[in-house]
Amino acid sequence: MRVDNDSFLGSPFPSEEPMAKNPPNGAVVDYYLPAKAGKVTLEVRDSKGKLVRRYVSGEKKAEPAPPLPIAERWLPKPAVIDVAPGMHRFVWDLRWGAAGLNEESDDEAIEVAGGPRVAPGSYQVKLLVDGTSLTEPLQVKMDPRSKATAAELAQQERLGLEIFGETRRVRQAQDQMKADKEALDKLKKKVKEHPQLIAQIEKVLADIADFDAGGKSGTTGLRTAGSGLQAALRVVESGDRAVPQQAMEVYRTSDEAAKGRIAEWQKLQSGELSELNRELKKAGLTAIP
C-alpha cells in the first residue's frame, strides 16, 4: 500500500521504554536460502519489464555521513540483502533507484532512501541466487484515503524521475570536479620549476571553483543548482496532488543552470584539462585522470 507518510517520524522513545515495532513501510519480500549464497540480487521491474530498483548483496563502503545534532539510533537502518542460510525478510520502500535510470548500475546496499515513489500498478519481484532466478508478482495499491487522480500520480512520478536523474548528474559532476581539484592541488606543489604549468593549473582550478560556486557573469553554480533541484524534488514528493507551479519554476531554472555548468565542465575536460595533461606528459609528469 502506497501511503504518504510524514518524512519526520518524531523523536524516538528512550531506549529503556518497552515498545513494539511499527509495521514495515513498503513491500515485504520474504525469501528462504537453504545454504549460504555467494551472491543474491533482488530486482523490481514494472509491468513493461523496466528495471525500477536493484539491490545486490555484499559489503558496501558506507559514505561518511555529515555531522548531525541527533543520535545515530534516530536514523533508519540501511536495507541489506542477506546471503546467510535461513529465512530473510526484505522491505522495498516503493521507490525508484539509480538502477532504474541505468540498468548497468547497482543500487548501493547502504542507500537508505531511493528516488521518487513508484505509481500504483503491477510490478514483478525477481530474486537471483547464484544463477537461479525466481519471480513473483507484486501489486502496489494507492492509499484509499488519497484524492489524487491517476494522471496526477503519473505526472508526479515522471517529474520525480526527471529531477532525480538530473540531481544524480550534478552530484557526479561535482564528484569529478572534487577529485580533479584534489589532484591539481597536489600537482601544483610538484611543478614549482614549471611556471607555465602552474599558470595552467591555476586557470583550471579557478574554472572548477566557478562551475561549482558560480559567480562568473552572474551564473548560478552547480552547488546552488543542485540545492534547487533537491528542493523541487522534495515538493514534488511531498503529497499526492498536482505539482505546484512554483516547484515547476524552481525545477526549470535549476535544471537550466545545472545543464549549463555541466556542459562547461565537459568542455573544460576535453579542452583545457586535456591540454594540461599533454603538457604534463611532455614534462614527464603523471596526467590528471
Looking at the chains present, what oligomeric state does this protein adopt? single chain
Number of domains: 2
Number of helices: 4
User: What is the end-to-end distance?
Assistant: 46 Å
Our estimate of the beta-strand percent is 15-25%
SSE topology string: EEEEEEHHHH
Strand order of the largest sheet: 3-2-5-6
Tell me the helix content. 25-40%
Describe this structure in words.
There is one protein chain. The protein has 2 domains: 27-140, Immunoglobulin-like, CATH 2.60.40; 150-282. Helix content is 39%, strand content 16%. It has 4 helices and 6 strands, in the order E-E-E-E-E-E-H-H-H-H. The longest helix has 41 residues, at 150-190. It is globular.
Task: List the main descriptive attributes of the protein structure presented here.
289 residues, alpha+beta, 2 domains, four-stranded antiparallel sheet
Present the secondary structure layout.
Blueprint: E1 27-33, E2 40-46, E3 51-56, E4 86-92, E5 121-129, E6 132-140, H1 150-190, H2 195-213, H3 222-236, H4 245-282
Antiparallel strand pairs: 1-4, 2-3, 2-5, 5-6
Helix pairs in contact: 1-2, 1-3, 1-4, 2-4, 3-4
In short:
This protein has 289 residues and is α+β, with helices and mostly antiparallel strands. It has four helices and six strands; from the N terminus they run E-E-E-E-E-E-H-H-H-H. It folds into two domains: 27-140, Immunoglobulin-like (Sandwich), CATH 2.60.40; 150-282.
